[in-house]
Fold each of these.
Amino acid sequence: MRAKIFALFLALALVLVLIINIFPLQFSQNMIVETTREQMLNNATFLASALAPHSTLTREKVLLTLEMAEPNPNTRLVVCDTSARVIYDSISTDSVSDKYLLLPEIGQALRAKDVFFCEYRDQAFHSRLAIPIQYNSEPLGVVYLSQIDEAQGKVLESLRVQMRNISILICAILFILVFFFSSHLSKRFAVLLSGIRAMQDGPYGKTVAISGKDELRVIADEFNQLSKRLEDTEALRQTFVSDASHELRTPLSAVRLLVDSILQSEQMDAETMREFMVDIGDEIDRLTRIAEKLLMLTKLDGAKSLKLVPVNLTDVAKRVLEALVPLAEDANITLKSDLTENLFLSADKDGVYQIIFNLAENAIKYNRAGGFVHLMLFSREDQVVLLVDDDGIGIPEEHRAHIFERFYRVDKSRTRNGKGGTGLGLSIAYKNVTSYGGTIEVGSSPSGGTRFTVSFPLLSEGGELHA
Ligand code: ADP
């Protein structure tokens, strides 16, 4: 991570240094060349046009013309005739007067071309310019200027030094910034990483504190939420496992006790033995019920997306009532129903059966002899509502908030007779109801018993949700 940031910094610094050190200097150099060219061309043009009216060129005429001009002391002026012979040279030492100046630029100027060369070397601009002198469009000679401009060269050189210093300063600042930024970033990543590792090794619930408002902070927040969720899930799982093993141990201990009693009694009569065996059978039934319901809950917990289909709630309610007739008769309970025909919801058929069966079975189980269970089904606005009323023992107010919890029973003793419940039926019903987008509530029935109210989004017969 750090190495990557530094590599990026190096690349950035290199580009920056190149930009700072090449473009402004190149631009300044071009500007100086262009200004020099214009200046020299102006001077040469002035001279050439002053000399042009003469039909022949002589040193005297040049000197006369030069009196009108203000020659640049840094510039060497040479005037040649058409045969490239020097008529005038402004310098005395190494003068080329009366010699033939056979330079390519003089040759080109004699062919009526303006020629300019400029190069920057040894911290000075070396420039040469040659333009033709014409008399009635006929070549008369050449004005040749050459100059070495050290002043401009110094300007360019000092600019180069300044640019270099600026580059060094920028690089140093960048380096410090990148250093702090990368160490800050590395530290924050290390915090996140330590959190992830801690969660891998130890208990869930580890949170990390990362400052700032960037993406890393978002990742840290997500991590904290995930960690919290895992912690909650783990706690639930542990409670569930310990509750489940406790619930399984109870009938197993009862079986153990009954078996021990049979084994210890040497002369047990057949009738008592039979009673013991019936009790053992009841406990085994209870174990089976717990195992089945646990399996069902595990399936519901693991189900990712349920495949929901339109289900006729009325038909399912009728089937449940039919199935419960023997149980109700045994308990001397009257089954009553008021069912609106063809009410549909989007659900899973078996799940809906489980809901109604659990509620109606409980209403029979937790009732008293001579009592009743009343199933009502109707639609209200865009909802289909199922009421399961009984006039049984009721559920005290303080227990109502808990009865959908796993293994929760209001009175543990009253259902511990082998036929007793598992404390899982309502949690299965709750899980099913919510997975179909419904709600389930518990309250008192008008007769003083219990009322369960279940609502689902109503589906038309065509399978569409009511608006
Ligand atoms: P169980 O298998 O024990 O019936 P449930 O989850 O179905 O488990 O019910 C949880 C507890 O809620 C029951 O043990 C019982 O105490 C109470 N309960 C449920 N339905 C009724 C009811 N209709 N009347 C009174 N108590 C009820």
Amino acid sequence: MSTDPATIVLGIETSCDETAAAVVRRDALGRAEVLSSVVASQTEAHKPFGGVVPEIAARAHVEIIDRIAREAMADAGLGFDNLDGVAATAGPGLVGGVMVGLSFGKAVALARGLPLVAVNHLEGHALSARLAADAPYPFLLLLVSGGHCQLLTVEGVGACRRLGSTIDDAAGEAFDKVAKVLGLGYPGGPALEALASGGDPTRFALPRALLGRKDCDFSFSGLKTAAARIAQAECRTEQDRADLAAAVQAAIARQLAERADRAMALYVQDHDHRLFVVAGGVAANRTVRRVLEETAAARGFAFLAPPMQYCTDNAAMIAYAGAERLAAGLTSDLGAAARPRWPLDEASALADPTHKPGRKGAKA
Ligand code: KG4
Ligand code: ZN
């Protein structure tokens, strides 16, 4: 244990196709300093399959997790004796991978007599804006990645409330699936954005999901089906493909903005401070960012998107969420289980049948 009033935490992230470790220092006021952040992506291993293969992901995590963790410690210039705790993602995610990182975290905690914090991956994303900017609680968060699409109020650590989430695909999944139809390979989001830059977003009409609904839920599966039909029937030239990519990108951005707008209207009913944060891999998309920034400005919200390296999966956000929990006395025991599904806001998830966990339910 250090005598510093700050806490230094090693974070481990293995819930999807990134093996990541990071060391974060949290001061007594909750400010973060990222001492190191190492991310090893498995993209190349999954590319031939057009998506993440769970068994390949788990094996790849096993092979490199100890090296990545040692690298994070070396980059931070610290030894294990300097740590105040170990935080590992315990879900939601591909459970084979989650077990690798959580077991590794448990082993370090046990060997070094350190407290363990089993972190919800979504809480890591939820707090990620605080890694590089002053983002005081509470704030409104749109979390948009390949696995998640939800709107949350973030009141503090352990106090997130979900306002809405996808009833089928996540936004990043929609980008990836349409990219696959257009033959753009995996991961598709960045490639689709590049193709869309030369396209006319108004040429093809696409369906607008959940129009007229007053809630903050999302749906992208109809969009994907319509895009696949247009791709097959009407896309002959490179310009046709660019126009379809632009239309899909605009439709995804518009839906995100519409639901974010609704969430802002609800949020201001019981909050004074207006801050809107977008996090997750899809926040890298410039059209999505621009449309959300405009929506936030129209509602009088400040807009914040974490730097890209903290938007996509990383362990700094897990270490920071762990440090926040440690400071609040919220530690886990060594029996903590890996959870494939783990809603951030369990109470409202259980009360809402649309989002019940299950084969067809939303992922988190
Ligand atoms: O947060 P992330 O790295 O991983 C998780 O899913 O947790 O997000 C990856 C997702 C993928 O679906 C990827 O296609 C999408 O984010 N993405 C993008 C862009 N960059 C990444 N989607 C649209 N435009 C982009 N520029
Ligand atoms: Zn993620």
